[in-house]
Amino acid sequence: MPIHIAIDIGGTQLRAAAYHPNSLEPVTVMRIPTRDEHTTPLERLQFLITQVWPKDETVIGIAVAAPGPTDPYRGVVIEAPNIPGWVGLPLRNYLENHFHVPVALGNDANLAALGEWMFGAGQGHAHLIYVTISTGIGGGIINDNRLMLGTHGLAAEIGHVTVIPDGPTCGCGSRGHLEAVASGTAIARWVREELEQGAKSSITIDEPITAKVIGEAAQSGDWLAVSAIARAANFIGVALADLLHIFNPSAIIIGGGVSRTGPLLLEPMFTTMQNHVMNPGYLEDLILRQAAFGDDAGLMGALALARTNFPE
Amino acid sequence: MPIHIAIDIGGTQLRAAAYHPNSLEPVTVMRIPTRDEHTTPLERLQFLITQVWPKDETVIGIAVAAPGPTDPYRGVVIEAPNIPGWVGLPLRNYLENHFHVPVALGNDANLAALGEWMFGAGQGHAHLIYVTISTGIGGGIINDNRLMLGTHGLAAEIGHVTVIPDGPTCGCGSRGHLEAVASGTAIARWVREELEQGAKSSITIDEPITAKVIGEAAQSGDWLAVSAIARAANFIGVALADLLHIFNPSAIIIGGGVSRTGPLLLEPMFTTMQNHVMNPGYLEDLILRQAAFGDDAGLMGALALARTNFPE
User: Fold this and answer.
1) Is B242 at the interface with chain A, CB within 8 A?
2) Does the predicted TM-score (pTM) go above 0.90?
3) Do A80 and A167 share a domain, yes or no?
4) Is B33 within a domain?
């Protein structure tokens, strides 16, 4: 049977899986650390692909989900955070020359949107917005059943929508972007600042304060943690109301680690959207739900890209 | 020869024109006031169409640009500002039953984007954002050579992107939307307030203060007027930076009355975009320019829709 190979490149792990058509159960799946002392990430990726390569079946294409900005038209990783040296890397050409099969490349959050649309929480929605909230905030947009890419493949950077003009500085250098006030990193920073100012909480200032710790405290009813999640949800809701006006989608899918807080995040987010939307037509038939895929988002996205670009 | 009929419905004027294929020179063109004391706007529209209807040629379709929210899928005018009674009006069905030719309907700002893309300042740009700044702020977006509509046709409401959370109340009832701080109406309001507080200007508080008056004063170098335009441009630039991150277009086209101030608007707008964009990739190959069509924007848009939906 024909085989698609899906790759998810992360800052800490490289993952690969081989799939038969019409199945989400991988024939083979493998993961290795992105870095070690003896080999480069590119050598490790190449090794990983040979490990999932089928012995007696034909590979009809490889699709790769890469972190950071990518150019899907030229197949280039523009800059991969946490992978030193991956700047302007022509990964598609490199892999095609090495494995002699067609290769496609996309940004991991963009592809996660495609994966949720094809296989997950967004099935049947021609117009869909996917937002992933973890250390940073990324996104992907399906418009009229197609992944939106833009001129150079840089579309759907939802984390870099301005929500507070002249607000805190974002990792990108601009100010007041959504990512700077509502990412896992921003949530943790806010809780730390509140604790320093004497806020009461089950979280103590001596432990490592992460979005995960805050999420767990919020689930247990900790007021500061619940407020931190709701505060982030409010900013995300403002940005999503903007995106409703721009796209008029029928589904918003929220993924990433912070989304595991579920209703603690989604309920205040929806309330803010209701308050900011210009007319109720935008909320008609709209669903807001958690993503179906957690850690598998990138891999499912790469598989969706492989099936889109390399049909049997 | 086959004929397309294009209609532009405005609050004050109804316009219609008949076109041969491959020509932007109308065979017939006519305009009448939207309202009079004896007939309804719908009767007047019907009359107008019969006036441009060709005697010896075949009409292959009518396309209509309507103000306010429309549902292009169902062919319904959801609500037309300044046309009393046009709420949930099934205009497509009405015209098809009356004229026995296929009819298509769209929001005027959306269609203006389509017109600029097909015939005007946006030709050759697969990904394009059009913003019209007049009394209100509207928009249209071309993604991958297609007009973006969304689930119910409510997409591209660029005027209702939040630029100041908890800012001034917008006409839609929400707060801090772009339209509430950067439309012609908002520009005029700001100038009036500044004059009331003693600001110096060639504009006096006794005359009617409109965006047109302010634009003319700005062209003559009036400091307050120049500041008013630049202030609006700054807000629009923030919103456009967001849209660059979301769409990664290769062209931004600015239309509407306020755009006639040209560089006074576009230069501060571009500076703000530069300051707010997360990386220079979004500005690479980007063009920012005035729309080609002024008062003809709606008519050209309707013609573009007719040629898209009803090819010969």
Assistant:
1) yes
2) yes
3) no
4) yes
